[in-house]
Amino acid sequence: MLRLFGHYIAFQAIVLAALEAVLLYVLLLALTYFNVFGFLGVGTKITHEVVDQRLIILVTVVNFLMVASVGLYNRSVFFDLGGAIGRSAVTFPVVFVAVSVALYLYFLVTGETTAPYYPACMIGLVLFYLLIIAVRIIFIEAVNLDVFRRRVLVLGSGKLAARIDDLMRHTDKGHFTVVGYVRLGDEDTGHDLTPTLSGDLLERRHALANFIAENQIEEVVVASEDRRRPRGRLGPGLPVWDLLECKMVGTRVTPFATFWEREAGYLDLDELQPGWLIFSDGFRINWFLRFVERIFDVVFSAAFLIFTVPLFLFAIIGIKATSRGPVFYRQERVGLNGRTFELLKFRSMRVDAERDGVPRWSTADDDRITSFGRFMRKTRVDEIPQVINVLKGEMSFVGPRPERPFFVETLSKAVPYYNERHRAKPGITGWAQTNFPYGSSEEDAKRKLSYDLYYIKNSSLFLDILIIVQTVRVVLWADVAR
Predict the structure, then answer these.
(1) Quick one: DSSP state of residue 167?
(2) Cα angle, residue 222 at apex, residues 219 and 223 outer, rounded to 5°
(3) Structural domain boundaries in the chain
(4) E strand or H helix at 133, and its extent?
(5) What is the rounded CA–CA span in Å between residue 376 and residue 396?
(6) Along the 482 residues of the chain, how does pLDDT read in single tens digits?
């Protein structure tokens, strides 16, 4: 994993994105430089002296943004070839439209004709999407080789170690491989972890460092629940001198909470301790960052509002045609530092949805949702009016979703750290919304909080842009919208 502006990104994803960008750039450059279509009588001939590489770079960047927006570089689908092919099929027509718009805007801004390049760009994209299937097959086989995986040794063989084992086998395949799990004290070993190494490895001086050197281990993860150790050791149950020796020879030593944050992309609330939050990296908040984010919110929201005027009109007509009642729905929500505000949305439920006055979670088959409201929720059209809340400064474009006071009061008593999510402005979209299905229970709220805390801890303009790009995937694949 590489850390960019506080956010962890899989090294394999960066390499694949760069590889595919270079492939498309070379294809477009070859098709224009060798004047394939000009010689075939299609369009105007392009001479070698006037090949506009800025335009080729523009098309490459537009394609990259579209591919990233549908999640083709996400951890969850990175090694899923079938899913990648399916998403590529959806992305292909979208890219054609996006590239056409980009070429037209390029013509308006520069005044330079783009007509000679259009056939080359379109055919180049067709060839690219045919080739990336083969590229991904080869790349997946390559990164699955042990030589490309980070070799990890886990101190512990209990519940935490079992979670790392499950992460390695099912969730984050290809990023790391566990060489072994070292048993500590009387820790439970009933989790079928293989290989489980004997705790005797820690009883002999230098044995751990020697084992790490012999097995080319790059990282030691401390995932122990039993911290009782023999006399003569410093610290609350950990072999600190062994770990210090490993650290001094260049081996990374990582606590479980940090490892999980990096590899899973969210914080583990069950193992989260205030001390770790205090001393870990993150929570870099200052006036300049808030100023930049506010400028970004205003500019992006204003532009978004202008471009979604047709959707505004479509939603108004749809709501009025399918149900009685007002177009907009106002609801009290909890925002920054616990202050409440009125959230604005297009109404997607019946006007008597809560006629008894008792707030209820929205469910997958909620009969309170109108037919047109269900469509709006699936496509996130109902969220558009919240842009007005952003312009008023009550919300940010990216941030934790604001919750109702009733649920906040309930969840803050049941879920540890729940009120900490109010350290940031609520947002229209967020890290939780792009990574986890819509929450409709206390357990879902806890899981979403783990993503919200990750966002607050690693907040940056880079992560905000990444989330906005990823929101396209949420709209196209409505499994995370309700």
Answers:
(1) I
(2) 125
(3) 2-143, 148-264, 287-352+363-480
(4) helix 118-143
(5) 21
(6) 777 777 888 777 888 889 989 999 888 888 876 655 444 444 444 444 445 678 888 889 998 888 888 778 876 666 677 777 777 777 888 888 888 888 888 888 877 776 667 777 888 888 888 888 888 888 877 776 666 678 899 988 888 888 888 888 765 455 788 888 887 766 665 567 766 776 666 677 778 888 888 888 999 999 876 544 443 443 345 778 888 888 888 889 999 999 999 888 899 988 888 888 888 888 877 788 888 889 989 998 888 888 888 988 999 999 988 888 889 989 899 999 999 999 999 998 887 766 666 666 666 567 788 888 888 888 888 889 999 999 999 999 999 999 999 889 989 988 889 999 999 999 998 999 888 766 667 788 888 999 999 999 998 888 898 898 888 777 666 554 44
Contacts of 436 (CB under 8 A, 6+ apart): 444, 447, 448, 451, 480
Architecture label for domain 148-264: 3-Layer(aba) Sandwich (3.40)
- Please count the CA atoms within 13 angstroms of the CA of 90 that sit on its side-chain side: 17
